[in-house]
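Handout, section B. The chain below has 177 residues.
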Amino acid sequence: MTRAFTLLAAALLAAPAVADDTFKLTGENTTLKFVGKKTDGKHEGGFKTITGTATCGMDPMSLTIECVIDCDSLHSDDAKLTGHLKGPDFFNVKVNPKATFKSTKVVKDGDKLTITGDLTLLGKTKPVTMTCFCAHKDGTLTLKGSFAIDRTQWGMTYGEGKINNMVELTLAVACKK
């Protein structure tokens, strides 16, 4: 029994340590931008305030993301539009001030990752999937990805037929531990 314990202890000490790094997501190191298109053009914008964490080991497949998006921090390329987007026709920030994202699955796809997670917006939770580049080295996590959502799945039906239902989103993270 003592010999077995000694061998087990030696094996555990010889095994490489698996360290997960937890990175704080903030509006300073994380950007979430959107492009909404309509029949006569497009509008761009994003969210200034994002909080949360990304945890990643040396294997990118271990990546987990949880974040909260302050919907009142929404901005666009037109001040009048920003006000409309914050109102009841779209984000209704007085009733639903926050949106959340929590990753549920990560799959390696060549040199990229496919991240699936639950997006809660306007009180409704729906799955979304994004493809992104991920690098984790020397205490830095870099993520760059894009995805599209159908805004009507969350109840944003204003302007259907004039405003595209699909909204393109891009995520960029550059965090140091």
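Note. Confidence is low (pLDDT under 50) at residues 1-18. Compare this with the example in section A.
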